[in-house]
């Protein structure tokens, strides 16, 4: 065991900050000419993203940038114009008559299974027999160029006998229209606890969905190769699943399909399953027409076809005493899943797992309904149901504090998980690494939360139109795939005879810096400079059966697997050198590009070439599976998570009581990434996740009309945060403690947890509404100007 | 006799060298030419409608012997509109030896790219700012936020990108990264203007030639900045056999200042038009920044916005409140001269996206009264405000827009004009509300009555931007806001306020 990986050594006392003056801090990389000594460790340093220089030059290749093979046809989806109906047929004759159009494919052209190889096996590849949402794909038009294909796709006639669509989650629930059976999780006796509580609150509210709005839209480029083999370029978080789905649809064995993804232009969960659909569609077309096919969705089609974050509706009853201590919670969650199960089961499960967020729920009864509606099939999105769980309890605690006239922070602190007692979750997992109290207390101090809360009240008393609000909310996010089997990863490390290193792993790069972190881990394991390690494209022919890059686990899993692969090579080299110098292999050190024994110091590349000449293996695989985790899928009990990531945020906002417009004024975040492998990348994840969460809860409103048409289908109508929406005061600090579990380099996962810190913005807005004399309990998310004004007016 | 239309080769400059592309249809976009014809895939398509900025390129143009730089969206820019100009993409900025331009280097150093897909667009917006601020000097955070509002990033949360904007000016400009202005200007001159008569893409250089072309080709699609028509191509899949582009007509590229009014030519970009309006009416500064994103303002024209006549176009409520007129022109064949007529802007519209213009007419000028010169210059206090309500402050379309200009003397409303958007099928003048105010004492009671009138005057629709109820409510509340501002209440409009601005209030 490498000393770096033991969780006992040293809490780094430095708090690393995002402020601009930290950009050139000594531990950062000011410029390539002044990069840190090539002998320094690669991890722990704010290295630039491995592709940054290519990205700024327009030289980083995305799927649509790959030079097209001669004969490539371009595809466009044929989308259903109604939300629900019996499908009588599709008539493509007008489309096929258009010059440049080469073909039409539909369900009739699928050589393998006409149902996608998704978990629930409930989703047709192309619509057949029924149409289940407006935008559902019934086939593809193939043409010489993409605009011709898109024009022609709109000429395809749908013959549909319309049926009434189910569009609201409440309607679905009333009809017991579910994609999966309901799940109930109980602990203690919620009813009895509610009965004996001093105070009770009851409420209902709704939280909207969210479009991923990855800047690179969904795209797949499929090429038939010799002997019925296939090459698939796709922008996916899960190449292994794309391989599985494509071979399943083509009726072939997995091994004839290779899927490659060098990078995505953003994923956020939207390319976990959704990318697979495109690859399957394109493959069916490529199979029928026997030529390469590229399918790149227009942004509007991408909105219309692909799933979003699940919208949720809630009803709750909660009891509490005069100090705000919870006494009983009954919670009903309705997840709007859309027309098929997709990942809705685990998403809704995670909402249950995170309905506690940071708080001990002694007596609790949660019912989760996975409602089937005639809309896009909602899917993974950063947080994966976690945000939809966390927002409930944060809302409840704020409302309790308002009811009792207490500071919401005190009510939150009062209900936190304990260390020795009150430390077991409602799904029977003991919280062993709890840092919530010190973390929240420190943030309250450094942000001046309590003074500012008083100042804001005084300020509001004198401000007739603008009212401010403030809120501090924490996050405790469980790290691991809840489906235990996915918590495994593989990697390959190749050392070439010149001492250069290539690493390949099962993870995918979507901008989160996974490849940068993994390269640093491998560099340190081999003691070579960061620049000697090259990360290569995710490729199912290199590392098979890899899990999705999701659940924030990319570095935990793949970083560790790559570390083990590098360690195997290092062990081979150490054994070789120890033989030369007559020392124990344990006495050989690898650092600074050198291999050092008690007697001799050699250059790494010299050792490598000598080892090669002595027929020593210079490459290896590595495999990792997360320890300790287990859980019972039927009762949702056990230890689904290896550890928790923690954080807290203070947000201050202002609202205009005449219009409902709002602004985020100040944000302070203290977040726990364990010992950071790359502080700049981690801070980037925290800031980016926070702003994305802010968008979910403020401006990003999805609007379906009464016919099931998604009316917000492009950036002109769907508004993600822009430059002007972020506060000037936006300060991120990192909690200075290593992961208490044995995780790679003492780090913690960071992709999703910060997303939920944006709930502080929503709670601050509700605080402002309350301070304006409005009714914060009336406010749903997202808090658009219209929604805020509605709440202000009570 | 119908002339056989031909499509001339298209020539523009890249890295100082002319690039010529043949057989480019008149409705092909610049992004398609870059990515598909020239195989330069550094510029990305994010949305195909000019709202995300991933496709941003910088256009260099010779204006009065100087090179000007404008970041524009290549996805909705027709390729032929850059004939004879210089086009810069993210691939063009590094030196021949690979050293990166400060706009790129700053993005790297500040960790401004994650997934990297929006990055070339941001780099080009930064490059445009760099060139327009004497090497990126003194770019404030406020300016960076305003000028980058048309570029969306889904990964970073923008802080590192704003840092990059502020820091690029302090980075050295590596040799080979500078734009050689003299050589570029000379090269631009060497691109010969092509002959026009039978072309599929007409871009006449003078007003008479433009009007003659309009008369001769009544079926040609008229475009200016193409920031709306571009979407007809990319989203509605419309095709145009022939395009008539007004933006080269040199007379219409000017803002002319007269004693009582500004005359803004129909080819003046929104950026330049609003600069002129803001210098005349400083309170419009924030509103001007909220009108779309910079790449759209740099391409789109005020004339196009007005001629297009969208009920949610933001210029019209303002122009109605300012008492602007429009000048329509045509070529009078008999007299062989330009003929014109002038009308009030609100009288241009007859219904949803319909107007009074004849087939041979073009909207050529917008005449805006100067501050305090609207009428007989009634003595008194003039207050102009324009309020925009949208889901997002920047780069969004109004759910409702209200522009109010009023002169109060001796406590009585002497003059008032109110324009409203988002509440009817066309941009409209709130005549009943004006009637409720004119001649009345400027008091809370009058405002109350006018608020009721304003809410009753229009029957807005419910759509994805807002409900009818909200639109009606907020319209009245905006009049309340105007009243409060007229009473000296400061900084009650969140659109431009930061935390520190608000500390001071109350």
TrEMBL record, chain A:
Residues 30-43 have a biased composition (Low complexity). Residues 57-164 form the Aldehyde oxidase/xanthine dehydrogenase a/b hammerhead domain. Residues 1-44 are annotated as: Disordered. Residues 1-10 have a biased composition (Polar residues). GO terms for molecular function: xanthine dehydrogenase activity. This is Xanthine dehydrogenase large subunit. Keywords: Molybdenum, Oxidoreductase. It comes from the Bacteria. Its EC number is 1.17.1.4. SUPFAM superfamilies: CO dehydrogenase molybdoprotein N-domain-like, Molybdenum cofactor-binding domain. SMART domains: Ald_Xan_dh_C (SM01008). It is an enzyme of class 1 (oxidoreductase).
Automatic annotation (TrEMBL), chain B:
Pfam families: CO_deh_flav_C, FAD_binding_5, Fer2, Fer2_2. Residues 194-373 form the FAD-binding PCMH-type domain. One of its GO terms (molecular function) is xanthine dehydrogenase activity. InterPro entries: 2Fe-2S-bd, 2Fe-2S-bd_dom_sf, 2Fe-2S_ferredoxin-like_sf, 2Fe-2S_ferredoxin-type, 2Fe2S_fd_BS, Ald_Oxase/xanthine_DH-like, Beta-grasp_dom_sf, CO_DH_flav_C. Keywords: FAD, Flavoprotein, Iron, Metal-binding, Oxidoreductase. SMART domains: CO_deh_flav_C. CDD domains: fer2. Gene3D superfamilies: 3.10.20.30, 3.30.465.10, [2Fe-2S]-binding domain, CO dehydrogenase flavoprotein, C-terminal domain, Uridine Diphospho-n-acetylenolpyruvylglucosamine Reductase, domain 2. This is Xanthine dehydrogenase small subunit. It comes from Hydrogenophaga palleronii.
